[in-house]
Give the backbone structure.
Amino acid sequence: MSARDGTSALGHRLISGRLVIATHNKGKLAEMRELLAPYGIEAVSAGELGLGEPDETGTTFRDNARIKAIAAAKASGLPSFSDDSGVVVDALDGEPGIHSARWAGPDKDFRAAMQRIEDELQSRGAMTPAQRRAAFVSALCVAWPDGHLEDFEARVDGTLIWPPRGDKGFGYDPMFVPDGHTRTFGEMSSDEKHGLPPKGAGLSHRARAFMKLAEACLATPAR
């Protein structure tokens, strides 16, 4: 089986042509487009197509990624790619987790969401780095109109700091320092955070999940 019949050497379905990115989040959209660009994939967002946002009723990141990708594939008639991701804080029993976006409210005020996490940590006496362990998790799903699904998940572990640092990235990036680094995601350039080799190390949760997806479902980009 090969790219000639639309199947990768690993037995997964290859992505080609036009792809809907099932998000209305500008930060996620920018990262996904950057990740897909070397593979010659034409990416159009759900927002650009006027597609609605389905209710995320799943209990896991993977569930919600599937809900979004399937809804966009059915509505557009095109393969659709979605991400569901968030920060999982050990001292908060895994919260906000799949509710990470909801903690920012309808106005997507992540400064307020970061303050809420900090307030919760302080109320539980979680002040030392060992007590402030967290991870970013990303689940990626590609859904085709015929119902075929491919999905992948990855995480990056780290520590939450306060006050937040940096104005790059989005969401909770300014308070998250990945293991092995001294700067937050909010202080890193896009290449440092989610750039793939040779430009970057595929550091972020989304980049790590994307590398799994690329190996399985994307043809090797032309050099």
Remarks:
- The first strand starts at residue 18 and ends at 21.
- The chain has a mean pLDDT of 92.
- The helical segments are 26-36, 61-76, 110-123, 190-194, 205-217.
- Residues 66 and 141 are 6 Å apart (CA to CA).
